[in-house]
Automatic annotation (TrEMBL), chains A, B:
GO BP terms, alphabetized: nuclear-transcribed mRNA poly(A) tail shortening; priRNA 3'-end processing; siRNA 3'-end processing
Pfam families for the chain: CAF1 (PF04857)
GO cellular component, as recorded: endoplasmic reticulum; nucleus
Recorded family membership: Belongs to the CAF1 family.
Domain of life, per lineage: Eukaryota
Organism of derivation: Camponotus floridanus (Florida carpenter ant)
Protein name: Poly(A)-specific ribonuclease PARN-like domain-containing protein 1
MF-aspect GO terms: 3'-5'-RNA exonuclease activity; RNA binding
Amino acid sequence: MFEVTNENFNTIYPHLERTLKNASFIAIDTELTGLNVDDVKNSLFDSINERYEKQRSSIQPYIIIQFGITAFQRIQHENQYTAEAFNFFLLPRSIPSKNRQFVWQVAALEFLTAYEFDFNKFAYNGISYLNEDDQAILQQQLEENVLFHNVERSMSYREEDSLKDYINQVFEWLNTASDETNSLKIDTPTPILQYLTHKELRNRFPNVWTFSGNNMVTVMKIRPDSRAILEQEEGSILENVLLESYIGFSKVFKLLVTLKKPIVAHNALLDLMFMYQQFYKPLPKKYTNFKDSLHQLFPTIYDTKFLSFELREHLSTEQKWKFNSLSGLVEYFTEKQGKYLALGSPNINLTCKINSDKSNVVPSTKYHTAGWDSYFAGYVFIRLIHVFSAKCYGQSSTLKHFTHTELMNNVKSFANCINIIRGSTSHLKLDGPEPGSTRPKWLFVKTLASKPITAMQIAEKMSSFGAVDIKQCTSKRMLVAVANHGRGSIAVSSGLLTWLLHQKLQRSS
Amino acid sequence: MFEVTNENFNTIYPHLERTLKNASFIAIDTELTGLNVDDVKNSLFDSINERYEKQRSSIQPYIIIQFGITAFQRIQHENQYTAEAFNFFLLPRSIPSKNRQFVWQVAALEFLTAYEFDFNKFAYNGISYLNEDDQAILQQQLEENVLFHNVERSMSYREEDSLKDYINQVFEWLNTASDETNSLKIDTPTPILQYLTHKELRNRFPNVWTFSGNNMVTVMKIRPDSRAILEQEEGSILENVLLESYIGFSKVFKLLVTLKKPIVAHNALLDLMFMYQQFYKPLPKKYTNFKDSLHQLFPTIYDTKFLSFELREHLSTEQKWKFNSLSGLVEYFTEKQGKYLALGSPNINLTCKINSDKSNVVPSTKYHTAGWDSYFAGYVFIRLIHVFSAKCYGQSSTLKHFTHTELMNNVKSFANCINIIRGSTSHLKLDGPEPGSTRPKWLFVKTLASKPITAMQIAEKMSSFGAVDIKQCTSKRMLVAVANHGRGSIAVSSGLLTWLLHQKLQRSS
């Protein structure tokens, strides 16, 4: 796996671009600073619109701090995919026109520590990003040459001291150097410092010109007429370099949008919403606007969590997995029954080059590292679509080899179906009308006893139907939503309370 | 310097307690995740009440992540203080009853990276803390035995897996161990896990008892009658241990409050407000309530920033320091004119034991590490109060040795004066009536030209008076507040604009 930070981002980018262009599909994953504010809870009563609006306001202050991308490429005439994984550390770099900040939920931070997240890599070497609004503002400020003034104010003391030091160096060099010493190299560790060094030195010394290098500015003595030519030729190169350094990872997002390759993620809704707000635009108020806009950006998305629910319906009891978490599915296909179910499915060859371990075995301790999880999502995707395809061709086809086109065609109808956790419908559909619900109908429950009933009591009684959500209407009446039909009809227990199934209500959805 | 994390906090605490009890005064410093939200700017128009209210709402979402304490002790019959410095990493640990979270300002995070802050130490080994409200809630939940259920829900998957594993271990041990093997030791890395391990094992196995050790639970086979006795004797020891682990650093805060030693800090207002909200209570709405309450907690506080402004008035031009930032003052007294001004001042002997470098020289790169900055604040305090004392005794007394009592008596009147940055008064007074302003009176400025004037234009014209703040009344009239009197009277420039000093307004303050 490539670990990508602000130190190697520019170097790795061309390789990343080539790899993504050649990909058959691209799997992604994110690690976040938080998920939900107080008192925002998913409920089986939530319609798709309600769920979107809840999550929109809930996730607004949090950010993606690690982004995983794995490019899967089908090898022609072979039953094999290569996989190349990239793990990006992200950090919103401060920009002069905005007080950027983010919220860290302690539970999310503790979660990251359980999976050995490197907080120093994040803070010291996170790659910058901008959404389109911030990029437009910055671009305009650069064009109008008003950023310079602001940048100066937002410079750290260290940067200010460095800049003063550079000016002194050039001053001394100009005074003492013989004509043969015709260049001076200055290290400029940050993009802002590089930009300001160019600007300041050119401004102060009319007889020099400055050239950019890798984290370096080269100063040369020059005749005023040559300088005029260089100035004219240069245009806004310096401004563009600075802007690029702020845009950082957003360039990768734009590349994903341009390529329009199928995107794969596990339980993708939050990843997609976070990506949208962080690299594109603030999330639209209405779900329909989000849906249309997201579909424009990524016309084909597969959610392996949704696929796993669909496929499970076609499996016999002993074939079914126990957990459809990402790690649960990986283990199912590598160590448990799934191993035999997907015998003919393509080899997946994780190519590990440059800064990573050479071994082709993915350590299971890598879960919840975005790069690895994106690989796992793509891995599970290939296994799932193979089993689906085998099912289409009849029971004995698990050994059959399918082409990439065959595999993708067999799950076409599941494209853009995104899983909804504990909602009134099981999923949303980004490219068409929303699905109806497959949940049991809501129940209206009323106690005939004289004592009032509590939501907790009902929840306990109905726990055999999976998740239970309750809306209390009066002290003796409530609406109950359950996740699944359980075994047979609703069991009325003969406990403390007597239930009356008074009425079954049509879901509004 | 002692670096204190959740790994050595309990071990170091007894030594810390002794050291603080013996201290002549205690210097503190904090490092923060942020300072101010958008659009909250300090202004020379701010009264003390306004400033407090601004800062109160501004700092609410941010936290102290590093706390520095240095205990300075005067050595009897010697012209010397010993200094012992402690640097605490703090992290709000998640508690079952609350979604704890904090905001990180990117500029603050970048600031910390410039001073080599260890974000992994913070995230992995930060010490917990609770304010009094959260502690009361937790305590009640423990007493009512309702936390257990909640803790279970808030356990990480890893903790859950560990717990299952421990139960299996005990089950096997009970089945296979001979009677001689009468104890089993289980590592329990986190306080929650330790608590739950005790509870679960005792619950599941009636023939065992569990004893606490250092991050360890020892299981022993036991007869039911002995167990009943042990149960009765134990009381709520387990609950108290768990509660203590959540309280963490707040214990140190309580110790500081109990000891009532003089507290020293540089530019202390923010430190004090952050401490109050983080370890004590939400900040009161009104300044007067904060002031009274803080004074109850810490009756004697010295602000070295305020002291430095006061002392500067007594110095000749060539004696004056250039910067009164903490580092500016340290350099003044160690490398510049201050060295000669404080010749007779006490030796300061930084005792470095255990986990730190042995050298007695403080590397200047350590600024903005809370532990070091607390040391620097105390260092500067001793130098400042010596020079003050020498001034009281006449010009030639810089070589004189003063007792601790003499030194403290000579600055008694400056106790509880806390510097205000760019406010309508220079400081606030925690133990008495607020001071009048020493700022120049506000100016009412009106242009006679036909063109409107902008705040920016005025600010430029008046920049020789130091900081300038402007309230625009109409397009041609504005109120101007400046930081100091400049040289002589207000200069009316003959530039683009003609100014009319229309009226001098009495400040309201």
